[in-house]
Amino acid sequence: MRATLVELVPEFVAELEAALRVVGHTELSAEVPLAELDRWAFDESCDAVYLYVSAGRELNAIEKSIIGVKHGQTIPVGHRYWVNVDTDNFGRLRGIEVLNGRELAAKLGPAINPN
Question: Which domain holds residue 57?
Fold first, then answer.
């Protein structure tokens, strides 16, 4: 079983949940603490971390096979880090881009190896 974001970086999750509620994304904010970290990547050249996560409800056969999963939207979020939240076309949390992410990468480092 993968670790949840709240297990790995609880302070970051609490701040992101609150920031998403402020910008009117209450349902999405509820997905953040439940999100499981699939993998993460750090780009040192631009000091950015990308968190690939699994969150939200499972899709049914029609959604998976006929409609298909695509990028939905990117939501900029006010946060002490600069954060963009990516959703799929079903509104589920799929990824989190963290600019100025060196500190967050250091916190993730001991917990899980990036892919």
Answer: 5-108
Q: What residues of the chain score a pLDDT lower than 50?
A: none
Vertex 38: Cα angle to 68 and 28 (nearest 5) = 65
Q: Is residue 113 part of a domain?
A: no
Count: domains in the chain: 1
DSSP category for residue 4: B
User: How do residues 96-106 score in pLDDT, each as one tens digit?
Assistant: 999 989 899 98
Q: Spell out the alpha helix ranges (H) of the chain.
A: 5-8, 10-22, 26-31, 61-62, 102-108
- Residue 63 placed within a domain: yes
Per-residue confidence (pLDDT) for residue 76, from 0 to 100: 94
Judge residue 28's burial from the number of C-beta atoms within 10 Å of its C-beta, 0-12 exposed, 13-18 middle, 19 or more buried: buried
Backbone angles phi, psi at 69, to 5 degrees: -95, 130
